[in-house]
C-alpha cells in the first residue's frame, strides 16, 4: 500500500507551508487518499516570521502580532487544531497619527483612511482647511476610467488630494507592506477601493454604504466598537506549536534545504543539502519567492520573480515598570507620517491593546523601524537601535529611565513589495512554471497576500490543486 502512495513535498515551514501540510494530511484522512506528505524546512524551527518570546510574564511578538477576524481562515485553522478557546480579541481605543510633532487622533468614521463621517473629519487637526476642501471634491469627481493597474498613491491623490494621503491614508495602508504608496499596486493590495469607485463613483459615499455598521459595546473607556483582530492568549506561536503537534510523526524535516530541483518521468526530483534525493509526485513551494526563483533558474524559469522587491524592517519591544512611562492620553498606539522627522514608523502600546501580554504593574511598547527608502537603521547594532527608538519615543511620551529589557528582531530583505503590475507578474510566473513543472505550485506571502489568513488561504488552495491533479 505504501509503495502506491503519492509523495507530496511542502517546501517551507512558515504559516503557508504549515497550513498546506496540515490540510493535506487532513484531506487524506477524511477522503482516504493515498498521500504521503513531507514538510521540508531549511531552518531548525517552523513558523517563519511568527515568533513569540515568553519572558518574565510578558508575551512578546517578534513578527506579526495578530490577524483580521473578518478573514476567517486563521480562526478556522485554530478551530481545526483545537485551540479556538485560546483566541483573544484586541482591546479597542483611540489610535493616533504623528504629524507636525503632535499625536492627532484618527478621525472617527475613518475606514482605512477614507472619511465616512464628515463631522469628525472636518474637526480634525490632521488637515488644513484647503486639504479638507480638496477631500470634499470626491463628492463631485467622476470615476477615473483608468484601465489596468495603478498605484495606490495615484488613485487616492486623484480623489482626495495630497494632504490626506500623506497624513492619514499612507500611514494606514502602507504599514503592513512597509511600502511606498506611490508604487504599491492597487489591484494587488486594496482592489476593493477600485470596485467601490466603479460602483458608487464617490469613495466617501461608497465606503459609507458598504462598511458594516458596528454594534455599540461600551468598554468603559468610551470606545464603542469591538476589536477587529485576534491573537492567542499565549502568543501567535501557539498556532505553530499546535500545528506541528498535529502533523503526522516523521512528516517534518527541519534543517534541510532543497538545493536543486529537476524533473524525471513526471516527478519532481529534489536534492537536499545533505545529499538526500527525494522523488515527489507534487510539490507545494511555500518558500520565499527569491528561493523559488533561484531553484528554477537552471531551467530558465521564474527569473521575473526577482522583480518582486523586498524591504527590511525591525521590531523593537521595550518592557518597563508602569511608573516609568507617563501616558496622559488614552489609546492603543500611533502611526508616523512620512513627513515627520522620526526613525520609528509606528508604535503599539501593547499593554493596552493586548492586556493579556503584560504582567500587572508593567508597560510594554512595541515600535517599528524600516520601510522602503529608509532601511539603514535595520543594520545598526542593537544598542544603537534602542537608543534611537527611545529618543523618538521620549519626544512623544514621557519615559523615565531605561527599559527592564528590550527585544529587537530584524527581518532583512523580507517584506515583499506588491508594486504596480504585481498580479500580472505572479500570473505569468505560475503559467511559466506550469509549462515545465505542472506538478509544482507556488504559494506564500510574496504572491496573493501577506496577511496570515491570506497565507493560509494560499496553502489551502495549493492543496486543492494538488488533490485535483493527483486524484481528479
In DSSP terms, counting alpha (H) and pi (I) runs of 4 or more, how many helices? 15
Secondary structure: number of strands: 24
Assign an overall shape.
globular
- Widest β-sheet, arrangement of strands: 8-7-19-20-21-17-23
- Name the helicity range: 25-40%
Task: Decide which structural class fits the backbone.
Answer: alpha+beta
Mean pLDDT: 94
CATH homologous superfamily name of the largest domain?
FAD/NAD(P)-binding domain
Strand composition percent: 15-25%
- Please tell me the CATH architecture of the largest domain by its name: 3-Layer(bba) Sandwich
CATH topology of the largest domain: FAD/NAD(P)-binding domain
The major pleated sheet works out as:
7 strands, mixed
The rounded distance between the terminal residues' Cα atoms is 20 Å
CATH level 1 name of the largest domain: Alpha Beta
Any idea what the radius of gyration is? 23 Å
How many domain modules?
A: 3
Low-confidence stretches: 216-224
Catalytic activity: coproporphyrinogen III + 3 O2 = coproporphyrin III + 3 H2O2
EC number: 1.3.3.15
Cofactor: FAD
Pathway: Porphyrin-containing compound metabolism; protoheme biosynthesis
